[in-house]
Amino acid sequence: MKYTPLALVLLILIGGGKPSEKRAEKNETKQEIINFLFKDYIGEKPSASFIVIKDGQIEDCQSFGYADLENKIRANCKTNYRLGSVTKQFTAMGILILIDQGKLKYDSRLTEVIPEFPEYGKEITIKNLLTHRSGLQEYSKLYPHDAEEQLVDKMVLDLLVQQDSLLFPANSKFNYSNSGYAVLAMIIERVSGKSFKEFMHQEIFEKTGMTNSTVYVKGHPIKNRAYGYKFNDTIYENKDQNLWSAIQGDGGIYSSVTDYVQWDNSLYNKTLVKSDLINDAFSNWNEKGKTDGKGYGFGWQIDIKNDRKYVMHGGSTTGFLNYALRIPSEKITVVIYTNTTDYGGLGRKANFLASYYSEGKIPIPADVLLEKDIEENGIGNSTKKFNQLKADTTKYDVVENDLVSLGFRYMKNEREKALSLFELVKTEYPHYLGGYFGLAQFYKSDGNKEKAVEYFKKVTEVATSEYQRQIDYSNKMIKELSE
Predict the structure, then answer these.
(1) Helix (H, G, I), strand (E, B) or coil at 74
(2) pLDDT tens for residues 118-137?
(3) Cβ-contact 403, 424 below 8 angstroms
(4) pLDDT surpassing 80 at residue 288
(5) Are 345 and 405 in contact, with CB atoms under 8 Å apart?
(6) Are 244 and 274 members of one domain?
(7) Domain containing 151: what range?
(8) Which of 364, 329, 331 is nearest to 349 (CA)?
């Protein structure tokens, strides 16, 4: 029997040595590692559905848990999840379709399309909205959190029209903006003469064959619908809606992992727009224009790893957490949709699956293998295992932030493991803030104010400007804990 290098690594990890013939069956090994990745969704729990697409074909598609706990409806690969911010790639495509049709331009001004917009809108272009460089204020800070009526895209626009200034001059910096994508949905409506829902169905879903997908409108039925849940320490409660759940442009599409196959293929086949527009969507944009580096495109986050471009986007909304990853050079796509926000790490799961199905071409996320080793052999072996993984950068992808995230996943119930991982990151990466931040939060939750302040101060010493949020939070904690 022939094994890929990755399959052999997994066999050794799972079997603890030379595998028997039975355990050497590739399908059994694959399912064991997949069950490990999705262990939090197995049983009487909310669901996860994933799909792996390679060369336009489905390599694997599985679901775990329940789409509807109350009615005991299990999830499957056609279950429709609310996508949250994974929606943004579809909203951006809607704008690109209008540009391709000659009805909009990248440099069209907001006030040209929406004349009632205040004077400050003259500085905002379509491109600024697509790339989160508009400076628009965030609707969540403009709408009362105790309001009874759900916000919709038109109401977001009305709130912004009432403002008289931007957070910063348009195109001067990046600031992730849900408001911007709600406005883009309204621009699609103004320019096309159709509702956002109608436009998505006619111009994207029907043309790509995404027959299972729809846009949320309150009161309209959604077939194969997953409902969102939150664990409250004893049971999972239905947490499907909040004030922002009815906004369409930034997060309101419902879709299934199998429908993503049609979407993925359309991006390769140029079904909807010309290739140069798709290339623009998959490129980073800054104040000077398009670049080949990391950053944000049009509804896509851009990363460069191992000399490959990764395009991806997460989606988080009440009751749902999702992730879509495309590696065009390998024609591999992994999509994971879930109907609970209680478990994170979807990016690492997606990257692991992409590595597994690349036949060893893409390095394996080291933190997944480290977690598996901790579960099987205990935390005492973690430093040795980490050094083993770190020694081969061609085979394993060691990401400091992923190690910190693993520590935080252990924080609530397995604190010894969390502490050891934060100490490991601090020791191995003394100039990176993550280990110090984890230790600060650990000691803060433990009631040890002195140690917490010590490590929050270390965060402010080593953190660079890109981590301004963590710096601000650490300074706030230093002040509160020192009083």
Answers:
(1) strand
(2) 999 999 999 999 999 999 99
(3) yes
(4) yes
(5) yes
(6) yes
(7) 57-332
(8) 364
